[in-house]
Amino acid sequence: MAKLKIYFCLTALAAVTAGPASAGVESFSYTSTPAQTPFTTGFTLPSFQTWLGTLTSIQITLATSGTAEVDIFNNTGSTQNFTNATASIPVSVTGPGGLSLSETLGAGPFSGTVAAGVNVFSGLPLSTSSSMFVSPVNFASFEDPPSALNLSFSFNGSTGTYAGSAPPNVFFGGSNSVLGTTTITYTYTDAPEPMSLALLGAGLAGLGMVRRRHRV
User: Fold this and answer.
1) CA distance 4 to 47
2) In what helix (H) or strand (E) does residue 105 lie, and over which residues does it extend?
């Protein structure tokens, strides 16, 4: 009988330990409203809840779209030639643990003539996307923060740089309208289910009882 009890206890333990751990994935996104650069937009995304399991990776993705333009101000009073007019506008998202992910939108190069006054050259709508994996040493910054359940991020669009070649008193400027989607994806190993933990406890308790009775 004692051997039979030991067999059942070991079977219970095997049921807990034999099954491979399964992976889980959670993903959260925030999309900003279109805004003219320069701007800074703050937002939050949920932290990882450690009761779900153990983090194995954190991926941050920034997808942006916008239409830049180059504005050329001709202050000479007459038509002028210009070449290689461009706009370059960096956008970025920053977050916990020193996270920083950036992209660049732009327009041009344009070449041609400009009349006196302001001349606007719009670029084509652009979409870009980039991603990064958070280093495991920074996982703690994304897990159950003690002060809140949300992580603070900032989406930033710079003034940008505008350049070109033209005679004196012809100036380059511009603007850009940008929207961005920031996505955080948690991949983790599932925590043991309550039933598995209970089964493990029962198995260990059964082994203890068998050992005590055997000694008696």
Assistant:
1) 48
2) strand 99-114
- 3-state SS assignment for residue 191: coil
Count Cβ atoms below 10 Å from residue 84 Cβ, excluding itself.
13
Please tell me the number of Cα atoms within 13 Å of 57 on its side-chain side.
11
Give dist(CA 78, CA 16) in Å, integer: 84
Rounded Cα distance between 169 and 165, Å, is: 11
pTM comes to 0.76
pLDDT digits (tens, 9 = 90+) for 149-180: 899 999 999 999 999 999 999 999 999 999 99
Note if the bond before 109 is cis, omega within 30 degrees: yes
Count CB-CB contacts under 10 A for residue 33: 7
Structure tokens at 14: 């095997």
> Which stretches of the chain are DSSP H helices?
2-18, 194-215
